[in-house]
Amino acid sequence: MPAVAIASGGNNKEYAGNLTLYVLVTCVVAAMGGLIFGYDIGISGGVTSMDSFLKKFFPPVYRKKELDKSTNQYCQYDSQTLTMFTSSLYLAALIASIGAVPVSRKWGRRWSMFFGGGLFCVGAILNGSAQAVWMLIFGRILLGLGIGFSNQSVPLYLSEMAPSKFRGALNILFQLSITVGILAANLLNYLFARIAGGWGWHLSLGVAVVPALIITIGSALLPNTPNSMIERGQLGEAKAQLQRIRGVDDVSEEFNDLVVASEESKKVEDPWRKLLQRKYRPQLCMAILIPFFQQLTGINVIMFYAPVLFDTIGFGSDASLMSAVITGSVNVVATCVAMYGVDKWGRRKLFLEGGIQMLICQIVVATCIGVKFGVDGNAENLPKWYAIVVVIFICTYVAGFAWSWGPLGWLVPSEIFPLEIRSAAQSVNVSVNMIFTFIVAQIFLTMLCHLKFGLFIFFAIFVCAMSVFVYYFLPETMGIPIEEMSRVWKQHCNV
């Protein structure tokens, strides 16, 4: 039986409170943690398409791309060292997301963000001044540690601060911040690549300090969530904070539920073991499978390597960077659509519509590239009208992801767990996300070399599978208070 009606029945509890300016401002500041993630996603593909960067750090790739005309066009960027530059960050983020759990529980979500921003700042400085490949890789590891801490804490912070009826939109601020970071990186890559002397890549990598400082300084000024304050025994301060963020004096019902949840949390000595209990298996499956499917949509193929991909399928270097700017702009606009619709249309509808849209676009793009380049990849540059068609369908694909699996991949896992295991569960979510981000980033260029245009079909198969998964197994969580979520899953599993 499909899960379409599972969460819509029954009387959902609705706490008193409004969307206050205080909550809106704090959520906007916290969501800036997504800037560092987005900027990194966008910047790596851009600098790896800059000839000056390749000549300095990856000369074999440069020779294969520019000098060896016998190389299959699909294979010109195939280098494990080059992909390690991109993907090493995500192994570090995996480790950091696990280490962030005790920090988040003991000192609160905002200090986890602060620590992440500081590490990212140091990594950005090292990357921007790099003179050898080892400096690049070490800097990427520091960036990854920063992203792991931030990605573990920001979605939790947003979900706990937001009123339930606005939780979806406020949580998607994190994804919007990611998309803004990607767009900023694409724009800067385009501008810096045109600097005479070939030193623009220093600026592309070094400017990552700016979003790092924004989240570092911003997190130091943020208040703690009532949930984390109660978790640390600060009951009086937590109630006053809850009254402030809800904009009403009578918050007793929500406060009492939070206290009960905290008391249950304190009984849990090992949240990891608690997470594995039978009653939490459905939620745990979601925390694993949603980020797994999110990465196998193929979106990071576009976002990491958009300039490389466009260059490979026939665009010139400047044109490929500009095409990446276009896809980044679409990403931002479509994420705003998700913010508008997630608490109006629901999570499931967006998941399913986005999946269908991405599936169609991947099939069309694979067909267009296959017809033009075949399997040898050595065709002349695409005609202008043909290139426009490819860009339009890639943009439509990006839009489908940006208002579905992009933001919801972070939102849903962050809102479905009780307080006592929420930090541990979010760590699982981030870890799985980073594992498969690493795998996709590491093997993409090799897969492109071997699968050619069939790479898009490969990802389309997973898009089809994950849409079926959502249809049958994911309940609707729109508008349900975060502390009431266990009831939804109990009802869902009994259907």
From TrEMBL:
The organism of origin for this protein: Rubus argutus
PANTHER family found in the cross-reference section: SOLUTE CARRIER FAMILY 2, FACILITATED GLUCOSE TRANSPORTER, SUGAR TRANSPORT PROTEIN 1
Gene3D superfamilies in the record: MFS general substrate transporter like domains
Domain Major facilitator superfamily (MFS) profile: residue ranges: 26-478
Membrane topology: Multi-pass membrane protein
Listed GO CC annotations: membrane
Upper taxonomic lineage: Eukaryota, Viridiplantae, Streptophyta, Embryophyta, Tracheophyta
Superkingdom assignment: Eukaryota
InterPro entries recorded: MFS_dom, MFS_STP/MST-like_plant, MFS_sugar_transport-like, MFS_trans_sf, STP/PLT_plant, Sugar/inositol_transpt, Sugar_transporter_CS
Location in the cell: Membrane
Protein name: Major facilitator superfamily (MFS) profile domain-containing protein
Residues spanning the membrane: 21-39, 82-103, 110-126, 132-151, 172-193, 199-222, 284-308, 320-342, 354-373, 385-406, 427-447, 453-474
PROSITE patterns per the UniProt record, alphabetical: MFS (PS50850), SUGAR_TRANSPORT_1 (PS00216), SUGAR_TRANSPORT_2 (PS00217)
